[in-house]
Amino acid sequence: MDKFRPLVRQTDLDVNDLICPIFVDETIKEPVEIRSMPGYYNIPPDMVADEVDCISDLGIPAIILFGVPHDKDETGTHAYGDDDVIQKAVRSIKGQSKKEIIVITDLCLCEYTSHGHCGMVDFDTQEILNDPTLEILGKTAVSHARAGADIVAPSGMMDGMVRAIRKALDDNGFPNTPIMSYAAKYSSGFYGPFRDAAKSGFSFGDRASYQMDPGNSDEAMREVELDIDEGADIIMVKPAMPYLDIIYRVKKGYKMPTAAYQVSGEYSMIKAAAQNGWLDEKKVMYESLISIKRAGADMILTYFAKDMAKMLNE
Ligand code: PBG
């Protein structure tokens, strides 16, 4: 009977669905394994192009870059300099890699601010300053595009960020650079290991004032609608597995190109269980990704991208 399975299977996973995250770290000289993400490494800027070639050789069509700068300050200055970590990394990939790989840049300030928040902060009230942040995000988007980024991906959940970034890109000669918006981003415990990788834990408070309550799903629809109105080209739901219902609703409701982010904690819990011999890693990796696809995601950002591609290529 097994020969009938492929014929009647409704959902397939393809290498073309995968987007591979890369942490580019200006503070290191050799790849360093991330403590809470077994098998995943921070990469120094001058080794990133080779890593991208390996990813590309597996047939993975896109990467997303996160930066770890040598210096962090209150306003995230090193997010937007032409010689800062992401801009350098993008230029070296575009200059060195022969391939057509799509370079997406994560666009947020939390990796660049000393307090670890995604926006400017009023230290008297400990409030996030939404509108002053928009200007910096616009500037950062333009610096990424100038370096050669193919898509920018704002992840900070500031109100009006997509519109501000669209305008900044259009006004500076990048009307064709698409925006992948982290539109429905939950205030999630599953981001824990990412903060080890990006060295971006926050010094006070949490991100609940700008990330969404896990109990809400109508709010996700409103967030997505706003981002579409403001000009987002691709909509993202994040995390993925605990929010399959959101992926389903967003895809059904808006029929937009829809991305899902299987985040660091989703990766780490599978890895940890597998290391203990409690789960079959390959089986669970595949099952987790196909479930995200089945829910409606067109593309998946995942730390399993390389492993999954290898398995699909076999
Ligand atoms: C930055 C950003 C985060 C992630 C992606 N972009 C961290 C956060 O919002 O706390 C998390 C990704 C992951 O956990 O893999 N705003």
CATH architecture level-2 label:
Alpha-Beta Barrel
What's the number of helices? 11
State the order of secondary-structure elements, H for helix, E for strand.
HEEEHEHEEEHEHEHHEHEHHEH
The biggest sheet, with number of strands, parallel, antiparallel or mixed sense and barrel status, is:
10 strands, mixed
Separation, N- and C-terminal Cα atoms: 23 Å
List keywords for this structure.
alpha/beta, TIM Barrel, 10-stranded mixed β-sheet, globular, binds ligand PBG
Topology:
Elements lengths: L4 H4 L9 E8 L6 E2 L7 E3 L4 H10 L4 E7 L16 H12 L5 E6 L12 E3 L4 E3 H18 L3 E4 L6 H11 L8 E6 L6 H6 L20 H13 L3 E5 L5 H11 L3 E5 L1 H12 L5 H15 L3 E4 L2 H9 L1
Parallel strand pairs: 1-3, 1-4, 1-12, 4-5, 5-8, 9-10, 10-11, 11-12
Antiparallel strand pairs: 2-3, 6-7
Helix pairs in contact: 2-3, 3-4, 4-5, 7-8
The site of ligand PBG has 11 residues, from loops.
Outline the structure in words:
By secondary structure, the protein is of the alpha/beta class. The protein has one domain: Aldolase class I (TIM Barrel). It has 11 helices and 12 strands. The strands form 2 sheets. Strands 1, 2, 3, 4, 5, 8, 9, 10, 11 and 12 form a 10-stranded mixed sheet that branches. A two-stranded antiparallel ribbon has the order 6-7. Strand 6 (120-122) and strand 7 form a beta hairpin. The mean pLDDT is 95. The protein binds ligand PBG. Residues 106, 108, 110, 118, 155-156, 191, 194, 207, 263-264 line the site of ligand PBG.
Please outline what is shown here.
The chain is an alpha/beta fold and 314 residues long. 39% of the residues lie in helices and 18% in strands. The chain has eleven helices and twelve strands.
